[in-house]
Design goal:
Length: 315
Amino acid sequence: MAMKTGLKIPVCIRHGELLLHPEPRVSNYKAGLRLLPGSNGMMDMGNTGGRFIWYELATIDVNAAKAFYTDVMGWGTAESSTADSVYTLFTAANTPVAGLTKLPAEALRTGALAQWTGYVGVEDVDATVARVKQLGGTVYIPPTDLPNVSRFSVIADPQRATLVLVKGRERGQEEAGRGGVVGRVSWHELRTSGLETAFAFYNGLFGWEKAETRSRPAGTYQNISVGTDTFGGMSIKPAEWPRSIWYYYFNVAGIEAAAKRVTANGGQVLYDPMTLPEGGRVIECLDPQGVPFALIDTQVNISIGCYSPRNRHPK
């Protein structure tokens, strides 16, 4: 299906350089890390190692983003700012599912722009960061302790897609993403300039494995898994995009209604709702500040080669 005309490249990938502050501050991540599932000593790394456990939007206009996503997603909010960082929790059924923070003024002056970032749980941050370097990635914040919270690092893969690595503590809490639950992330998709290079990096870093491979008109779509859990996919990014990016698919109930909410609140829908080979329906969007994200309809039973959400959790 063709992209609608008159739409722009997502603002967070418009420039060729990685759009992070050249010297990212620990305080930019402090509030989010403090609120991660398990930051109070309850994260089960036996379940979350190598899995996405948190999602965070760093943006220019926090109030505008809050109004947009609460209406589009039906999220609630809870304020949890610190002395040096403004931070809002997005909640679904009173459970935190994502964070919202403001890009600092100095980051804006150096060209940083709004974007969603995923946090991946690892057992040993230092060892994982060492592998990032060996595998050709970039480390933007080296392993750093936040006392009584966690240890983390900000990295990019060789094609400059950004992630935060975070170590959990003890047992008991599941990750923020949960397949099929409205308001949560159920699919993670890397749009990359080099499919095999990207897979080799993440396989070496997290042990992710290839699941089903599907040939499409736009090229190969490679599903990826951790253990028996197929949680995402990789595909070649559009040629006009200057760098790779992670797309996060949020669950909604009713894709057409969600698309109307996106446009009514000042966002853009890049494609009309797309029906995937076995019935799933998705849209790709930009929020009012140009940040890309995607929505998937939870009202449809999905089991798709090129899109195959993680195993459903029991209700």
